[in-house]
Amino acid sequence: MQDRLFIGAMSGTSADGVDAAMVRIGGTGLTMRAELLGHVETAYPSILRQQIASARSGEPAGLSDLANLARDVSRAYVGAIEQLLQKLGIEPERVSAIGAHGQTLFHSPPLTIQWLDPALFAQAVRIDVVADFRRADCAAGGQGAPLVPYADQILFGSETESQVILNIGGIANITLLPKVASGDPVIGYDTGPGNCVSDWLMRDNGGVDIDGARALSGTVSAKAVEGLMNSLYFTKSPPKSTDGPAMLAIWRCVIDPQMPLNDQLATAAKWVGQSVRKSLDQHRADRLIVCGGGTRNRAIMQYLPEATDPADYGVPAQARE
Questions:
Q1: What separation, in Å, do the N-terminal and C-terminal C-alpha atoms of the chain show?
Q2: Which uninterrupted H or E stretch holds 10?
Q3: 239: cis peptide before it, omega within 30°?
Q4: For residues 312 and 13, what is the distance between their CA atoms, to the nearest angstrom?
Q5: Distances (CA, A) of 30 to 5, 47, 151
Q6: Residue 161 clears pLDDT 80, i.e. is over it
Q7: Could you tell me which of 8, 30, 76, 158 has the fewest CB atoms within 10 Å of its CB?
Q8: Model pLDDT for residues 7-50, shown as the tens digit of each residue
Q9: Average pLDDT of the segment spanning 263-276
Q10: Is the bond preceding residue 110 a cis peptide, omega within 30 degrees?
């Protein structure tokens, strides 16, 4: 089959902006080939981040507010696509389609909401748009997340090594890739929190803990981490998925809000590390490949010393999803 160009556009549960990646695809099925041509990261305007955070926290919103939110999210997607096309010097008519995730507002399977106006988006960029992946997966009996195991098989599958692909976004999730010839199934599920707690803690404290520096300066509460790990979610067997508000609810039940901020950040990073490690210990693999925004947080990454950079496979950590 002739090679085709596709764009993937993603805004994760951290709700910090839109990533877009241009990919050249050849072949079909498990013989498919994917080559990354370029990638951009675009930030949401601060007011849009605040509106998304408000909607995700369950605050009341009018129908007109929700309609405007879909329009503004879609415009942010348009901006990311335009920037990517300009960066690569590629005309819209050369692109076969865009796969667009939308902005997660709510996720508790089988109920899920990814907010986007695909028609407005497609009209603005003049490229066909495929969207609403999570609801399609839930309708088919899935969890709606994570959605990337098939792509991981294409991008990282190995004849000689079993692998775990870990993504640390607002939520952390893993794909278990057995050796290609083994015949064992590919499995994916959410391990628990990613950046969602530190994002929430920093919302009124500068917006982001750059490189996890404040978390590294704090002191972990081992007792608090033990209490967080006692939550029912971590006793469930996969398939399973979760969302930031659910993890924040667990956090609020366990953590004393008077704990110093840096100690909270350090404890949150340890919770991510321990919940991920719990899953990794259940699924022994030859290699761990770590992707997503959480790779920039050194306080989290210190708990994953064996991590391999996906850029070694031609896929930068921020572009994979």
A1: 24
A2: strand 4-11
A3: yes
A4: 26
A5: 18, 42, 10
A6: yes
A7: 30
A8: 999 998 888 899 999 999 999 988 899 999 999 999 999 999 99
A9: 98
A10: yes
Render 19-82 in DSSP notation, one character per residue.
EEEEEEEESSGGG-EEEEEEEEEEEPPHHHHHHHHHHHTT----HHHHHHHHHHHHHHHHHHHH
Q: Rounded to whole angstroms, what are the CA distances from 56 to 14, 60, 98, 104, 299?
A: 11, 10, 25, 8, 26
Which residues, 6+ apart, have CB-to-CB distance to 275 below 8 Å? 172, 191, 192, 193, 229, 234
Give residues with Cβ within 8 angstroms of 152, minimum separation 6. Answer: 165, 175, 177, 186, 188
Tokens of 266: 């350090």
The answer to whether 15 and 44 have CB atoms below 8 angstroms apart is yes
Distance CA 52, CA 114 (A): 11
Please identify which residue in the block is written with the tokens 């990311």.
Answer: 80
**Amino acid sitting at position 305:** P
Model-wide pTM > 0.85: yes
Phi/psi of residue 190, nearest 5 degrees = -80, 130
Beta strands in 109-225 (DSSP E): 111-115, 129-131, 163-168, 171-177, 187-193
User: Residue 289 pairs with which residues in a beta bridge?
Assistant: 165, 308
* Spatial contact of 99 and 146, defined as CB atoms under 8 Å apart: no
Per 3-state DSSP, the chain is made up of helix, strand and coil in percentages (nearest 5) of 45, 25, 30
Burial 212-240 (b: 16+ CB within 10 A, else e): bebbbebebbeebbeebbebebbeeebeb
The SS3 assignment for 272 reads: helix
In Å, how far from its chain's centre is CA 50?
A: 19
- DSSP secondary structure, 289-313, as one string: EEESGGGG-HHHHTT-TTEE-GGGG
Q: Which two tokens stand for residue 130?
A: 């495929």
